[in-house]
Amino acid sequence: MHSLKQSENKYLKFWEKLTTDRPELYVLIPHEKPDFDAIASSCILQKLLTTLMQIKSVIVMDSPTLETQYVLRELNIDLVWMNPGDFSTEGSYDVVLIDSSNPERFISEQIKQLIGASRRIFAIDHHFTGESASATLELLYHPVPATTEIILGLSEELGVLSNILEDERLTKLAILGLVTDTYFFTLATPSTFRYMSKLSERVQYIKIVETLRKKREQPLPEKLARLKAMQRIMLRVINSKIVCITHVGSYESKVASSLLDMGADLSIVISPKRERGKKLIRVILRSKGIQLEPIVKEIADVYGGSYGILMNYAGGIQISSKERIDKLRKAIMEIVFKHLGEGVET
After folding, report:
1. Which residues contact 198 (CB under 8 A, 6 or more apart)?
2. What b/e sequence results for 126-146 when a residue is b if at least 16 CB atoms lie within 10 Å of its CB, and e otherwise?
């Protein structure tokens, strides 16, 4: 457990390191395919840097998904960012990774070059990765449901949370980040509700939730991904726990979550990828009450991958294995068997 005093020290020590020997520019880089939590955290940190330090900062990221863009448009939230290919690595700048803490997990060579040419690297993240912190990277980690909560905590310790709350755009983004990354408060902590109380006083919270929940026609590729996932399911009952493993080409996170909604206690979705000329495999896990860390760690260790876990509810692994998908599914199920006990095929 982290006491408030420990958190204060951690936040302020990180800020001191970040702002000492300041560069000409801060480059804020959320993880690829940024979600609301990554976007909100990036925008709020940019406000902190501008308000407190009067130093230029830019957000460099991929375009949000069409679904994310729809919500932002409906809520009249404007974003300003640069695509990785438009950023020049000339000049002095520091990089701050947002909602991510491992530079090696980026697939984009442009982002990797951008990070590699930076003067210093910082990171702010709420995912537990189990990886040793790099000597060249300064990390602010706190085990809360969303990186947005870390950024709000940092704002509070710096005495400028009121500046954030007065900005309607940032308040809306913060609510989006907290609501979505807590799965509508399934993973919320007392501090989550404390911040939500402050945020919801400033904007129409109901409109934000209604926009998120609004039923929209699923795009054809997503419909196909969900249906194909159902066709490919490997299903086992292990000590009264239902475990499902399947594979899809895309929408792996949504498929994993939908399997939980359908009754699975543990869903695992494998997705082979070819991104920017590189082959990799993503493994997404979602759980109802099953401890993910030992399972995720063993899969990553066996296949030499990197991983992240969120409060033992959600996990993700990225590996470079050339293993055939059917063999990989069986191998992963064997690892699950080992941790959960003998299973009964259904």
Report:
1. 161, 165
2. bbbbeeeeeeebbbbbbebbb
The string over 180-199, giving b where at least 16 C-beta atoms fall within 10 Å of a residue's C-beta and e elsewhere, is bbbbeeebbbebbeebbebb
| CATH code of domain 220-340 | 3.10.310.20
Cβ distance 319 to 280 under 8 Å? yes
Residues of the chain with pLDDT under 50: 1-4, 132-133, 343-346
Residue 291, CA atoms < 13 Å, CB-side half-sphere: 7
In this structure, how many other beta carbons lie within 10 angstroms of the beta carbon of residue 248?
Answer: 22
Q: Supply the pLDDT for residue 277.
A: 62
Four-way CATH pick for 4-213: 3.30.200.120, 3.40.50.620, 3.90.1640.10, 3.20.20.30: 3.90.1640.10
Kindly report the number of other CB atoms within 10 A of residue 38's CB atom: 28
Backbone phi and psi for residue 286, each to the nearest 5 degrees, phi listed first: -135, 145
Residue 245 token pair: 């493993």
Helices and strands, number each (H, E), in the chain: 13, 12
Using CB atoms within 10 Å of the CB of residue 221, give its burial: 0 to 12 exposed, 13 to 18 middle, 19+ buried: exposed
Tell me the per-residue pLDDT of 71-116, one tens digit each, with 9 for 90 and over. Answer: 999 999 999 999 999 999 888 999 999 999 988 888 888 999 999 9
* Residue 219 confidence (pLDDT): 79
pLDDT at 321: 75
Domain ranges of the chain: 4-213, 220-340
Summarised one tens digit per residue, pLDDT across range 272-311 is 987 666 788 999 999 998 999 999 999 999 998 888 888 7
Question: What was the pLDDT predicted at 211?
Answer: 93
Residue type, 143: P
For residues 80 and 63, give the distance between their C-alpha atoms in angstroms, rounded to a whole number: 11
CA 284 to chain centre: 12
Please report the pLDDT score of residue 130 as a whole number. 62
Who's near 262: CB < 8 A, 6+ residues apart? none
